[in-house]
Amino acid sequence: MRAYVIRRVLLVIPTLFLVSALVFLSVRFIPGDIVDVMSARMEYVGSGDINRELLRERLGLDRPVYVQYARWVGDILLRGTLGESLYGGFRVEERLAGRLGVTIELGLVAVIAGLLIALPVGVYSAIRQYTAADYAGRSFAILGLATPNFWIGLMVMIYPAIWWGWTPPMTHVRFTAEPWENLRMFIIPSLILGTYLAASTMRMTRTMMLEVLRQDYVRTAWAKGLRERRVVLRHAVKNALIPVVTLVGLQLPIIAGGSVIIENIFNLPGIGRLMLIALNERDYPVISGVNLFFATVVVLLNLITDLTYAFLDPRIRYE
Description:
The protein is mainly α.
């Protein structure tokens, strides 16, 4: 087990290095750069033209891309900084730290809500196969997989406002200041963000439960006269959850990516919203820093997912 953990941790280093290079280069292929954006804004407000070459030199964009990348990586390794914004001059890591709590809360509530829906519905649908409850649960899963989260979010914002004059809370309040108001703002976007997770997890839970319930040791437990609750919870659910954990681990990056759109729809001041602002402004250090942050989170979540296997199934041992 220890050797496996060490190998996985060491594998993180080249993975993040490769991701950092891809992120840094990919944003350079976006049509237009920050100089074009600034020039367009200056022309719009009628402030006259700007010296594009001088501005590019001041921003450090006149150097070759590999020199810019080496400098960026050097700042991360030697100074522990993700760079400074080309617009506001703030440090990227400081702005990330200020917005991290919102994104974590959104993702955490989304995962909890999704699992609270998916696991009971998936288990019940399996033990009551081909009943009305089973068909209802499967229909919900198909609908959740087929409907994009951003579309649901837009519908929640538009139609209740038209029909009843109601909109979800749009002013962010810290949890430490007003816990209830904070939860009121997060519960709707979190449920929408967790819809896809709930749907896919419910289908996987149902499938694995059906497979486990047909195993010999479960049939033996039924034959001994054990209660259904004990057979399901003690003998079936734990083994059925192993593939489910894998699926949930794979869905977490999707939730992280989905937060970019959901935060903008519901006016949540998180990292996802910062990402879209930086993309519109072509603020390269912020874009690269946010992408590297999300990549690091995904790598760590995959590591945690793999290590969870050993806890759920004693037969799994990494030597």
